Structure formats: structure tokens, C-alpha cells
Amino acid sequence: AHAAGMDRLGETFARFLPRRTDRLLLLAWIFPSFVQGVAGFGTPIAVCAPLLLMLGYDKVRAVVLPLVGYHWSVTFGSMGSSFYMASLTAGFGGSSQDTLAFAAATMLAVSAVVAGLLVLLIDNGLRGLRQGWVLLIIAGPAMGGTLVIAATAVPAIASLAAGTAGLLTLTAKRLVEARVARRTGRPPGGEDASDSDDELASSPDGALAPDPAADTMQARPVTVLAPYGFLLLVVLPVFLIPPSRDFVRERFELAPSFGRTATDRGWVNEPVDQYLPIPLLGHPGFYILLACVLGWITYRLVGLWRGVDSKRVARSWLSAVAGSAPTTLLLGALAMVLVDSGMVTTLADGIADAAGSAYPALSPVVGAIGSFMTGSSTSSNALFAALQAEVAGRVDVDPELLVAAQATGANVGNSIAPVIVLIGATAVGALDRVGDITRRALLPMAVLLVVAIGGVLVRGSLL
Which of 112, 131, 284, 379, by CA, is between 20 and 30 Å from 73? Predict the structure, then answer.
């Protein structure tokens, strides 16, 4: 999709929206969350920060706004890699994984609405909130509700589905406003409207003006999203219908067996015949591959693949795999060593003794520290999800709740991790402003962390 011109989508959407606050919420809140659904590790910031720069935002705010706006989509983004890592290392499967997905999605749905609120406040204070509240109260619940529904069915596409719901909501709002404007003879947008073409053509920071090569993309923005559309169209019917969901989850499983192991300190792992079975037809990778093939065929048919260097695309993919897969695999292996050697249990005993019943309020902070240090919520979950589950048993809290808190906190820490901030700063040519970006993001991220802590305490009191 990137090779076919996805980087032009932001410009297309911006030209479609006369309201300044609608464009802001699109590029700092809705669209980066959609991108996060399939491509993580700072990609949403790298895509959206330059677009905000082209709309006239200064370099610091162009990075800070999407950092705050997209954070809620990280756990179920990248096809659910962070979520599945948390579930795997915590030893969840079946109903436990479903409970974890619901708990995490519920807390993140609240964070999604708060993130949109903070974006408006950061941009223009209470005036920004007055101008953007309509889209906020429409798109926020739509994205949050979609996140919860999709996460309970197919965690891998939850953020993608939620971002899609936001895009559809915004499109519907724009069409209604255009219809009303035709009937009344008044331009849509009122005092918040501005000439988006002028803003895109130039900016005080010297942003690039749109070029004629964008015309083809702008004429067919939906076509560029074809792989994501195929992903939703194929995955949702399969997993939302119970018989088909049961079928794909029970066929062609990879389920390794492990013999008994024991340490010199007496920690024993009993033999397992089928360890966390992976159904090939029910795995996100199968549907990603299918969506890639169908999307590529579509691009070829409509001419969007003309002039694209396929070998270069393949090399870029292999480079991304070489950079991310070894780290992910080794962190997963490290987490399993910590669990199977009894180290996590020893740490959990000490933490439970020290923190006692106050620990649930600290669990999101642990997740945030992990992702801040590693620059990845997946890495944070690999390191700490099993620990959170172990501590939960010692402080009489459901383990799914604390692992959900871990994932939610990891989202917040991920958004101010130095490596992610650097990606955004590089995208807008502001490497000398990294400190300013981090300082501007600290307060809103602290608010989001407090929201996560509040979500844990409220859910814990209700269970």
C-alpha cells in the first residue's frame, strides 16, 4: 500500500475537509490509529507528522499531536502483535485470552476518547474543544466501540477496524454537512473552515507543495486501501460467525510438545502435549498474506503498480523483517526462560510483599516504563506480562486485569519512548527539537497514564 501511494492519503483526506479541527482530528487521531492497525514502530508518526507540518503546524506540535492521538491503538495495532505477545508470555489461551482482549479493549476505548480530547486542547485550548466536540463525541465512541467488538472477535484487526470506523464516521459527517450546505447555500465549516488547498500548498516551515503525480492517487484513495479492505472483508465474516470461527481455530494446528524440566532450586515444569496451539487458518499471518495477494492483484488491474520497483519493495520488506523479527523472537525466548526457570515467580513474591493491595494502581506504570525503555509495547509485554499475571495471583486480582493494565500502560510509555520521538522528529526535520517534543508530550501522557490507572481501579472494584 505504501508503494502504491498511501503517503498521499493524508493530503486527499485533508482536501476533503473544510473544517480545521476535522483535519486535525483526522491526521492526529483517526488516520494514525488506522495506520497503526497494520504498521507499528513509529510508522503512524512518520506518515502523519509531515502532513500536519504541511497544514501549517509547527514542527514540535506536528509530532506531539499524533503521539498523543494514536497511543490507544498500539496494543491491537501491527495486527495485534503486542496483544499476542502479552497473552503468550502470560500463558493465556482460550477464554483467558478472550477476557484479556475485552479488558484491554475496554480501557483503551476510554483512552481513545480522552486522546481525542487532549489533541483538541493541545491545539487550541477550550476554543479547539468547542470547535471539534461534534466529531469527538461521534467518532470517539464509534472507534472505541468498534475496538471492543473487534477485539473480542479478532484481536489482530481491532485497531484497524477501529481506525476504519473513525474514517467512515468522519466521511459520513462531511457528506451530511455538504448536503446541508447545498440546501442552505452556506459553506460548510463556519468559522472553523479555511482554504485547505492554500494551506497544503505552502507552510511557514517550507513544506512541499502537492505535485501533479498525486492526482491519480487522489482520484482513487479507496483503491490504495484495497489490501486493508480485503483484510476486513475476509477476516470479519470468518471470525464473527461462530461455526466458521470454530472451524478455522480447530484445523491445521501447530502445537509443540515439551517434556518435563526442573531446576536445581526445585522449580518444575510438567510435560505438555500441546503447548498453546497455533491454528494456521486462524492466525493473522494467513489473512495478511491473503490481503497482500489480493491487494497486489487489484493494484495491477487499476494501474497503481505501474512503475513500482517490485524488487525494491521486497528488499524493504526483508529489511524490516531482519530488523524486527530477531528482537521479537529473542525477547519472547527471554520471557519464557524467566517464566520456566521460576524467576518471574520469585520477583512476583517480592513485589507482592512490598506493594500489597496497592500494586494494581502501579501495574500500568510498570508497562509504561518497559515500553519507554525499549521503544516497543511488544517488548514491554514480553518482559512484564508474565510478571503481572504472577503478581495478580498474590494480591487477589484477576491476572487478565493486570495484564490488560500492563498493555494499556505500555501504550502510553511507547508514545514518549525516545526511539519513537526520534522517528517523528526525523520525519519533520526537527532533530534539534527532540527535547521540546518530549517535554510537550509529558503532561498529556501523564493524564493518559492516570486514566489507565483509574480504569484498573474501577474494573478491579467491579469484579
Answer: 131
Domain that holds residue 286: 233-251+280-308
Measure the CA–CA gap between 42 and 74, rounded to whole angstroms: 10
d(CA 386, CA 380): 11
Listed in sequence order, the residues at least 6 apart from 5 whose beta carbon sits closer than 8 Å to its beta carbon are: 214, 216, 217, 224, 304
Q: How many Å from the N-terminal Cα to the C-terminal Cα in the chain?
A: 43
Angstrom distances, CA of residue 125 to CA of 129, 159, 306, 439: 7, 28, 46, 18
Q: In terms of domains, do 37 and 118 share one?
A: yes
| Among candidate residues 412, 394, 393, the one with its CA nearest the CA of residue 455 | 412
Answer yes or no: pTM beyond 0.85.
Answer: no
Query: Does residue 166 belong to any structural domain of this protein?
Result: yes
Statement to judge: residues 98 and 247 lie in one domain: no
The per-residue pLDDT for 19 is: 82
Nearest one of 310, 331, 50 to 200, comparing CA atoms: 50
Clarify whether residues 344 and 377 are in a common domain. Answer: yes
Residue 211 and residue 126 in contact, taking contact as beta carbons nearer than 8 Å:
no
> Considering only CA atoms, which of 152, 157, 106 is closest in space to residue 405?
106
Give which of 228, 80, 236 is closest to 167, Cα–Cα.
228
3 state DSSP class of 225? coil
Q: What's the confidence (pLDDT) of residue 201?
A: 38
Intervals of the chain under pLDDT 50: 195-219
> CB neighbours (10 Å) of residue 311?
8
- pLDDT tens, residue by residue, 351-401: 878 888 888 998 999 889 888 877 778 888 888 898 899 888 888 889 999
Sign of CA dihedral 42, 47, 48, 50: positive
pLDDT at 288: 79
